[in-house]
């Protein structure tokens, strides 16, 4: 089935991470009523660890519950005749539960005919737990999995666009996945719309670049730009930073832009900055859909917040999927206090040393600890003016980590006693004891594609 009734296809993204602006989706759909596809990217490396904790407490959880509300905000547009299709990895560790929650929400909103597709099969935790000690070596440290196998918490392969394409061609209006490579959320609608072959690697490469530019939302429309302050100080509506969209042509060439009435900026510089973000080797950007060379990419700044991109080249992907695995790695806590008055930084540092000494006196030599005085140059270096350094205020931050929770419990109890035993000019105690949080380690590795079998299911909502 061909989706190429329109010569070009418009794809936008309104979620760069789990916690991005909740109103962005409805706002963008009001600004771009002729949008064809909307992607929402929820999953960073640590996200599935958080979802695993949620699922342990409630088996029906383990997904980005925020998405259910976001999807509900699209209901009025569907009821008004919009044909927008939505693709998201909000399913996390439990895409079927996410789909069921969405079904209930859309049913209540009167959208009973919206079809939801679910992609599953990315969870490879059982395979890693049963794997041989010389398999699944850490891609960064080259250490064997055996070091942390007993502490594994999640392990998910980055799936590609293929199962998403199948669902789009079967008529799905919403696709909910677990771990899928971020650019693949954009590759899939391009392939489905234009009936591209998955082996047409130059076109797949262009769609992958488009997805890479879209995946972080407003980063490509000026967020986190090197010249953020000077660039946007005179631009109206910076608080209403526009989310990006691409207009893809059948030959793979595309234009990236933002809604005309939104803030921010799309120009050659903002696109270049995002283009180079987290790509590794620019001659071999690895994705499950293609190995992409960025070396021949051409940017043509058309003005009016429109940049045309062409020239990416692709070849067949490797025989492996990348796996994002996480494991428990102890606990952490941090305390922050504001110190003011003469010699603020000296008093702050001494307060931090007092806290750690008292923890040691209680019998806990912490495995990791760090004292820093924010605002005095501890983070980025000191600025000397008028022949010397001078600051009447700073923020003391003491961060600790240990495999023993009881060591951290001792630490958090030693903050408040500074009320009476510390120096004058210390504030911040009223926020209560610091929280002890579990630490998750990251374990990237590879798995043979033949061992991973994606599954798809389409439900009527």
Structure, described:
Helix 3 (66-79) crosses helix 4 (95-108) and helix 7 (184-194) crosses helix 8. The chain has 461 residues and is of the alpha+beta class. The mean pLDDT is 92. It folds into two domains: 9-122 and 158-318, no CATH class; 328-442, 2-Layer Sandwich (Alpha-Beta Plaits). The strands form three sheets. It has a ten-stranded mixed sheet, with helices on both faces. The chain contains 13 helices and 19 strands. Helices cover 28% and strands 24% of the residues. It is globular, with a radius of gyration of 25 Å.
Principal-axis shape: globular
Number of strands: 19
The total domain count is 2
Q: What portion of residues belong to β-strands?
A: 15-25%
- SSE class: alpha+beta
Residues in helix, %: 25-40%
- Give the low-confidence spans: none
Order of strands across the main sheet: 11-12-8-7-1-2-3-6-4-19
Q: How many helical stretches? A: 13
What average pLDDT do the residues reach? 92
Please describe the biggest sheet, giving its number of strands, its sense, and whether it closes into a barrel: 10 strands, mixed
